[in-house]
Structure formats: structure tokens, C-alpha cells
Amino acid sequence: MSFTLLVVVLLTAIAFVGVVVALSYAISPRSYNEQKFEAYECGVPTRGKSWMQFRVGYYLFAILFLMFDVETVFLFPWAVVMRDLGAQGLISVLFFFSVLVLGLAYAWRKGALEWK
């Protein structure tokens, strides 16, 4: 019963999206000119190369920041309900924290935290 309902809801959602996309394609205005096919650069013509390379260190630092940002998002709810979780909750928090500390130690050992 519930599986049938799920299939009906998914098919209805897919059909609705298809109808909306087809309708917007059918009634949208069309104007073809050369400017439509150019890359948008905020109205200012580019001088020189428009692509720049970034050092990998920026990406590594951003990933590490996200890792520890997500850590705080997960650790705060655990800290709020720590007494209710008991020993199993403590073990899971310690495992999670140890994985993060090992990741930080690995990044530190590989030199990801140093600007060169």
C-alpha cells in the first residue's frame, strides 16, 4: 500500500516537472543573436586570459575548514544530550573525534597547513 503511494507521488512529481518545463519552453520568447552566445563577463570585455590558476593549498585549507566546521555542527548536539546517551554515546563521540584528530594529524604531517 505505502509503496504504491510512493510510486504514485514520484510519478506525479516527475509529470508535473515535465509539464512545467515543456510549458516554459513552449511559451518562452526566442531571440537569436550573436550576443546571446557570448560568455557573460559583467558587461566588461576581458583583457588577457580570463582563467586563473589557484594554488592547491587554498583548496586543502578550505576542505580542512569545512571538515572542522561540520565537526562543530555534529559535536554541539552530542554535547547537549551527552548525559542521556550513556556509554555508547560517549564511545561514538570519542570515535568521531579521534577520526577528526587523525585527519588533522595527517594533514599537518603532509604539510597541508603550511603556506609555501
Provide structural commentary.
The chain crosses the membrane at residues 6-27, 56-79, 85-108. NDH-1 is composed of 14 different subunits. Subunits NuoA, H, J, K, L, M, N constitute the membrane sector of the complex. It is found in: Cell membrane; Membrane. The protein is 69% helix and 0% strand. It has 116 residues and is mainly α. The chain has a domain at 65-116. The mean pLDDT is 84.
Main features:
single chain, 116 residues, mainly alpha, 3 helices, 69% helix
Summarize the SSE layout with pairings.
Blueprint: H1 2-27, H2 56-80, H3 82-110
Helix pairs in contact: 2-3
Subunit structure: NDH-1 is composed of 14 different subunits. Subunits NuoA, H, J, K, L, M, N constitute the membrane sector of the complex.
Pfam families: Oxidored_q4
Keywords: Cell inner membrane, Cell membrane, Membrane, NAD, Quinone, Translocase, Transmembrane, Transmembrane helix, Transport, Ubiquinone
